[in-house]
Amino acid sequence: MVNPMSETTVRFGPGDFGEDRPAINAKKQDLHLQAVEALRLLEQTNHPPEIFRHASSIVRMARDRSGLPVLQVLDEGRMRQILAERLTWYQLDKNEERSPARPPWDLPKNILAFPRDQLPFPTLERVTLRPVFTRDGRLIRTRGYDSETGILCSPLFPKEIRRRPVPDQPNRGQLRWAKDSIGEMFCDFPFTDDSDWAHLVCALLLPIVRDLIKGLTFLHLIEKPSPGTGATLLARVVCYLACGRETAAMTAPQGEAEWRRTLFAKLLQVPEVVLLDNVSSLNSATLSSAITIDYFEDRIVGTSEVRRVPVHCLWLATANNPVLSPELERRCVRIRMDAGVERPHLRKGFRHSKLTKWVVENEARLVWAMLTLVQAWISEDRPPGSKTLGMFESWAEIMGGILDVAGIDGFLDNVYDSNKAPDSESVTWGSLAWRWWSEHKCRRVAVEDLFSIADEILDLGSGNERSRRTTFGKALSKRRDCVFGEYRIRDAGMRQGAQVWKLE
């Protein structure tokens, strides 16, 4: 049996030495010049583009077993494979005749060390399996790389979409049909009010309008009072329609270090959506930060190399009455469901009892409806929504505008309601402040003066008294100048070497 990796089986194409591939001398002495020449030849062979600059890495577009696109970060091994695959390497014998050779062993490492802005590969911003709208309102729907936006579109949508293009100016009948089609898909879910339905449509449309939004987007939280209401099914359907593929859910990591590693690894894959399934509480500073930044940085595990990846995904989570930190409370929009029964999973009488199958069968209709809702807003000269929210102004203007044109009510209504309602921290620290004022009024007090109250009300851990006092002191310092109910916590200086506090 012939060894497929032996040099005797290497095919060089027509002619003696790979006339269909650029040839390069493997024995060239100057490593830098050899790297420059190899990059120039790789640029010639990179049509259509398959090698890109992404974030701080060089990546290659590959396919998984199901044929879906995946990004592979090029390390030395993969770069060596590309050099061998795309270029014909030779060496000259004493008679100046060419014979087959291999890429120099140190060449891939040298190429990967080049500054990213000196590499001749196009920049990749995102990979999408659905048609998407660019920042100027143009609809990208054909397969290939769009050099103006850095978007690689590998659309997965039925032939019916190609035969029935999205109208440039949808009329009222088409707009109503589009809205009704999306409503039909979600008719069996027990949303509590119009806001939940409106925010679900926002989550569904976000990946196809993400490039229109300048800045941040919310975490879309699908919540319900008890298991079995259908949150995971709802999230899976949203991910499939918005992104064109099944999305692997992740559970909430434990500890900030694990949050950083998990989110960084996920974002390196350029996901269209990050799905957190079945969370009980969310109190992560890393997640709060990731939602409100355009780029996420961290160190590659096992190395000292720091990489920077873009954050342009849909953030989606499912939960049963979750407890949220104040930071995440104001970074999420709620999609709440309530079946109103003790055992929601035993309900019957659904219009679409096999919803996933129904969505796949009606995929063309539903994708067309999603695109039509956005196109209707663009054809109206993109009117901004009437409601806004700090840090998320662009998201609110665009999503609110699309829903206004479509005639979908409730946008951001329950966000304002939830901001008025006290969160768990406000309740506990409000109780502490009330007891504090009742016993000490505006007098200057130290941690030991308040510890007995705090130990009753706050969760200070299971350590000994000294440990709990230390925990309370740190918690009090973090809430300096915070207002709880009618009281503000103030720094009152030092007394006998100890920090003291007072209430206003």
Please characterize this protein's 3D structure.
This protein is an alpha/beta fold and 504 residues long. It folds into 4 domains: 7-123, no CATH class; 127-162, no CATH class; 163-344 and 352-420, 3-Layer(aba) Sandwich (Rossmann fold); 424-503. 38% of the residues lie in helices and 20% in strands. The protein has 17 helices and 21 strands. The protein has helices spanning 31-45, 76-86, 107-112, 159-163, 172-185, 194-209, 231-243, 256-267, 285-291, 326-329, 355-361, 363-379, 393-406, 413-420, 424-440, 447-457, 465-478; strands at residues 23-25, 51-54, 57-63, 69-73, 88-92, 98-100, 126-128, 132-133, 139-140, 144-146, 151-153, 219-224, 273-282, 295-299, 306-310, 314-324, 332-336, 445-446, 483-484, 487-495, 498-503. The strands form 7 sheets. Strands 13-16-12-17 form a 4-stranded parallel β-sheet. The N and C termini lie far apart (87 Å).
What's the short story on this structure?
The chain is α/β, with parallel strands linked by helices and 504 residues long. The chain has helices spanning 31-45, 76-86, 107-112, 159-163, 172-185, 194-209, 231-243, 256-267, 285-291, 326-329, 355-361, 363-379, 393-406, 413-420, 424-440, 447-457, 465-478; strands at 23-25, 51-54, 57-63, 69-73, 88-92, 98-100, 126-128, 132-133, 139-140, 144-146, 151-153, 219-224, 273-282, 295-299, 306-310, 314-324, 332-336, 445-446, 483-484, 487-495, 498-503. Helix 8 runs parallel beside helix 9 (285-291).
